[in-house]
Amino acid sequence: MTTLEDCRALDAQDPLRSLRDQFTLPEGVIYLDGNSLGVLPKAAPARIAEVVTQEWGQGLIRSWNTASWFDLPQRLGDKVARLIGAAPGEVVCTDSTSVNLYKVLFAALSQQKDTGRKLVVSERSNFPTDLYIAESLCRERGFTLKLIEAGELQGPGSVLTDEVAVLMLTHVNYRTGAMHDMKAITAAAHAAGALTVWDLAHSAGAVPVALNDSNADYAIGCGYKYLNGGPGAPAFAWVHARHANKFEQPLSGWWGHAAPFEFTPHYRPAAGVGRYLCGTQPIIALAGLECGLDTVLAAEAFDKDEGAMAALRAKSLALTDLFIRLVEERCVGQGLSLVTPREHAQRGSQVCLSRGEGAYAIVQALIARGVIGDYRAGDSQMPDILRFGFTPLYLGFDDVWNSVEHLVQVLESGEWKREEFNRKNAVT
Amino acid sequence: MTTLEDCRALDAQDPLRSLRDQFTLPEGVIYLDGNSLGVLPKAAPARIAEVVTQEWGQGLIRSWNTASWFDLPQRLGDKVARLIGAAPGEVVCTDSTSVNLYKVLFAALSQQKDTGRKLVVSERSNFPTDLYIAESLCRERGFTLKLIEAGELQGPGSVLTDEVAVLMLTHVNYRTGAMHDMKAITAAAHAAGALTVWDLAHSAGAVPVALNDSNADYAIGCGYKYLNGGPGAPAFAWVHARHANKFEQPLSGWWGHAAPFEFTPHYRPAAGVGRYLCGTQPIIALAGLECGLDTVLAAEAFDKDEGAMAALRAKSLALTDLFIRLVEERCVGQGLSLVTPREHAQRGSQVCLSRGEGAYAIVQALIARGVIGDYRAGDSQMPDILRFGFTPLYLGFDDVWNSVEHLVQVLESGEWKREEFNRKNAVT
After folding, report:
1. Chain A: nearest CA to B260, how far in angstroms?
2. To the nearest 10°, the Cα dihedral for B261, B264, B265, B270?
3. Which of A210, A262, A293, B371 has its CA 20 to 30 A from that of A363?
């Protein structure tokens, strides 16, 4: 049996342990929800205050020049690029994940509009907002959204036929933590003549991503989960260089214009991914996002060859392996099942458990104890989920041990059956 | 001749004078560019710091409940509603002006798609990003964008024929400061069977707007100009109640879903203007916007019947009248022409001047003296513009006098001819 002392020994040997000093965490909280909203970088309050009081308050309109506001979406995009296997100049930080998905999916569908291909394929268990955007665009552009299970993607009888225009997948599933093989699936999609759109919401800052090496076509992702950019931080969009200058997205605002300050009456898209910008971006929110990105990039110091995500991935897997082992050692007979894949190559940076009853109440009871994970409701085809995200930047092996200790106590005491934990009034 | 002492006397009698205490202004600056980026409310740094350190840092994901993040777009929308003649529940604060224009113009075009009407009419001198978005949507949806001059809207030979699907106008022109008669033009558009989309970027917080009384159809506007919401603050969208539940916009993200936390795989639009929301919004930026909105709403105390904008309008006109009079008294023979209409009913809250040469350099020379206005380049049909915005919340009559004094000195000394002021390297 693994003990708390064993876990403390792992922390003592952990080369990344100092990275947690970059963050402010609430007292008495073990935060296993960085996959929903990342924690506050210590640098963020001062940097945001500087943007507010100096750049806005003192610089005013002059800060477009003196603080280089116009460069922010691409300058921050270059930082994101280092985390997702993209090149400088290929990423912009802007708008929300949903709005960016609309842009890139529109561009991908434009590319396929004369091929006769009419299907957009995605997973039934994809994040709902992605399906909503795809549903809308399919209706608008004359395509059909086909929802499948992950198992139908490869092998004989694959759904990747010559009818498929775009395969739109979330790399790491938000409910299960299962991770796709981006390179293999992209190759299969391309072999069938389809383009790929990848949502990296639960990947960027969580697992290594190799967009160019995978030969992917389009990708978008979230700034406020594993990138620690703050609530509602701007999202990002990436477009492969072979497509970037060829296709346009329809949200053709001034910031994506080739000469935005000429105020010409006709739109002319900027070269490259700059054309995926639209209107004026929230400068204060971008400052928060940059502080978050810097916390992840700090891990580059620990793997000078392979970069930040290689360094973080080893610890992420060690944390999730430990959590799985402790749950299986200590929660025997408590009705919990592992939903997340055991194989490393198929696992993101989270562990999901299911239980016949009480998933919601158990999560609430844990939150009341300061162990913050979250709950995702199931339906006729999917079980209710207890979801725990493990961010190697600020979690220790002791945190994993303590969170399982609380889980054991919640289950063995039956405290989750108390009425207060069963009221489903939570927004999260 | 009006003297500085006369202006100081006007300030001494100004009932709104105390409103300027709400703001932090840089030392030595007369800020005549609130129509490009509003100034910093004194309350903003502390409120933003609270959101960063407490709601994000301490509350983390729990703040969706405890800080009511989900309600922000509509709660702030209700504050905007009080400034634009809309009802509670009719406005959302979200995304950028350009993205919101895409949503409402799409909805308006959906309404007209089976009528055979194929024209979207707008002004040639409309703000370019509006034209870019319209250009894109027209191409996509099978409409034609027809650009006209303001004079072609009414009277015999009006362009408002039975071919017009949508009339899309900016209420106050960004270059000239000319204001449309929203009610009369909306009536003329409706008489012709067209819908109206109004951009309130230079109106909200600047002039009284009566959307419901004007019977307008759709409107959008900017949060960071006269609403003082901070650089890139979220914008807003309004939809008349008669349309709000009938039509959808295509950016169908989770925040616009009828039951966003049920995570259902199919999109079902929220009732009312809530369906004009899309993805996750920048919470920190929304906090800045609320501080800005509160500075304008503070003027409600000065006109309990007609509201904040009625109180502010009288002073705005007094400021712009004074500026025009002083320029005409003191800059005789300097080649300046008034571009902004003299008639109050046709004037926004800015004054624009043109000059055969040197407009850019004169603006730069003024900025070097701390008088911040801005320059807008002309073309074969429009002259170069010196643009001065007058925000009654924080400008005094003495500021108007001093700004004209600087203008006189810049012109009479010929200092604008110095090479440093003639280099066009500015982003603004």
Report:
1. 9
2. -70
3. A293
